[in-house]
Design brief:
The complex is a heterodimer. Chain A is α+β, with helices and mostly antiparallel strands. Helix content of chain A is 40%, strand content 27%. Chain A contains four helices and three strands; from the N terminus they run ααβββαα. In chain B, β4 (220-236) and β5 (241-257) form a beta hairpin. Classes of the chains: A alpha+beta, B alpha+beta.
Chain lengths: 149, 360
């Protein structure tokens, strides 16, 4: 199971997973890229991150983050696209190639060989942080004081 | 008139070469790597990202190294770098309700859904120097406990259910962006929040502190402080749908403030809001106090003349790069300006002397 995000389509889920993955981890899982041409980029830029006033109100501009985007075309195959956090151009190309490959008959193999391990690692990392946070949760207890206890 | 003066190139080159050598320090001591700064001075990295207004931990760490640890200089480097980047778009507003919290505390409710989670905090440490850190030592492993990965509700949402706290007007209009258009006053709340979140931590802290000491008092409680990662999602026009492009760590603070009520509003609590890149809780708390102080007009409160209520004073002096740019420029050559002043003073003195002589 990749992720429990029922409102998203499959492509959104794998593109998000690729964007969040550490570049070296993705590279380790997919060493060699199939023949492809670069349609756009890879290009480094900035995306303005927005928040909401009071967490729920109207949007405001919080600040920018670096993002690299890339669009590739497989030889005799579909185009793939990536918008990834950071400035790693090779990561953006690799993510775009995986996006393209996921639209071919190699999808099944890629899901098992690349996406599932990425998702498993992400889940484990999040679970560990959540478990460390849980250990710092305060358990209040009350001390009875005074005469009328 | 400006008169160009050449020269000093050799001196400048030598100064910069010496700067590079001083930056490195004693070569018998191992050189700091950018990764070490990113991992081990992460709160400095967070401050540089917040005030540089660019989320990129590696770049912020590099800037800190280049600036020899001068954080305002590092922020300057980040601000300069970000102007070279093309703007690829804007994200959807991040959902802080979905934050994967590593810290979440409330000063208003002891028992609340999700509980009080301390996280990796300096609170309750004794602030005694730990000399073990001066020696290489093993790092203790943080304990773990079973966790639920569900959503942690906002405290203000709990108060809001009973109408006890003022709601935030919903909407999706494009917010003003002070990096694109010059800031105009009076500023809307979204514009104020953008200016404050990238403002100097020391300045925002002092402004917030001044409200606590009585200069524009707002009676703030920290309803909730939370730190954690949120997903950043952006609509990609080529695809026709939104995708997550990454994750950022944020600190969010919501204050709950007293409000008597007015002719149109029943008595209810009001809110101040802080949201800052990284683990930056001092800044986030200060931001929410300053946000609330600046809301006096819309809440029908009195202007008491307090600096923290003065929008122009706060917003026009919060940016440390603007401030240091104008401050530090006065050390650069002003030979001609000063020559003119010198001439003037000499002339006035001569005239005053002549008048005195004539009177005698």
């Amino acid at each position: 199971m990749i992720a429990n995000e029922p409102e998203k389509n499959e492509r959104q889920i794998w593109m998000g997973l690729l964007a969040r993955a550490a570049p070296e981890r993705l590279q380790a899982l997919l060493q060699d890229l199939p023949p492809h041409t670069l349609l756009r980029g890879p290009e480094v830029g900035a995306v303005m991150v927005r928040g909401r006033v009071g967490g729920t109100g109207v949007p405001f501009n919080l600040g920018e983050m670096t993002v690299t985007r890339c669009t590739v075309q497989l030889a005799d195959g579909p185009a793939g696209h990536a918008h990834i956090q950071g400035r790693d151009k090779r990561h953006a190309v690799r993510a775009a190639v995986v996006d393209a490959l996921m639209q071919t008959d190699r999808a099944y193999a890629l899901r098992a060989g690349v996406l599932e391990p990425l998702a498993a690692h992400e889940t484990a990392t999040r679970a560990l942080r959540a478990a460390k946070a849980a250990a710092t949760k305060v358990e209040f207890f009350t001390l009875a004081r005074g005469e009328d206890a | 008139m400006y008169v160009a003066v050449k020269g000093g190139e050799r001196a400048i080159d030598a100064a910069h070469a010496w700067l590079a050598e001083e930056r490195r320090g004693d070569t018998a001591v191992a050189e700091l790597s950018v990764a070490q700064i990113r991992e081990q001075l992460s709160l400095a990295v967070n401050r540089v990202m917040a005030e540089g207004s660019l989320y990129d931990p590696d770049l912020a760490a590099l800037a800190i190294k280049q600036a020899r640890g001068d954080l305002i200089e590092a922020i300057f480097l980040i601000r300069a770098y970000r102007t070279t980047l093309p703007r690829l778009g804007a994200s959807r507003p991040v959902e802080t309700a979905d934050m994967a919290v590593i810290r979440r505390i409330s000063a208003t409710f002891k028992d609340l859904p999700g509980g009080q989670v301390l996280g990796p905090t300096f609170d309750y440490t004794h602030r005694l120097l730990d000399f073990k850190l001066a020696a290489e030592g093993e790092v203790p492993v943080a304990p773990t406990a079973p966790a639920s990965l569900g959503q942690v509700p906002h405290v203000t949402a709990i108060l809001g259910r009973d109408g006890l706290i003022q709601g935030e007007a919903a909407g999706d209009e494009t917010p003003p962006d002070l990096t694109r258009e010059p800031m105009e006053l009076p500023a809307s709340r979204p514009l104020r929040l953008q200016a404050i979140t990238r403002g100097d931590e020391g300045f925002i802290l002092s402004m917030a502190y001044s409200t606590q000491r009585g200069y524009g008092r707002t009676h703030a409680f920290v309803g909730e402080l939370r730190i954690g990662a949120v997903a950043v999602e952006m609509d990609i026009p080529e695809l026709g749908f939104a995708v997550q492009i990454g994750e950022v760590e944020l600190t969010e603070c919501e204050t709950v403030n007293q409000f008597k009520g007015s002719k149109t509003e029943p008595p209810q609590f009001t809110r101040g809001y802080g949201l800052v890149f990284g683990q930056t809780e001092r800044k986030a708390i200060a931001m929410s106090l300053v946000d609330r102080a600046l809301r006096w007009k819309e809440l029908g409160e009195d202007f008491t003349g307090a600096p923290a209520q003065d929008e122009e004073f706060v917003l026009k002096h919060a940016d440390n790069i603007q401030a240091t740019g104008f401050l530090e420029h006065i050390k650069l050559p002003h030979y001609v300006d000063f020559q003119a002043e010198l001439e003037l003073v000499r002339k006035l003195r001569a005239e005053a002397g002549a008048t005195r002589d004539a009177a005698e």
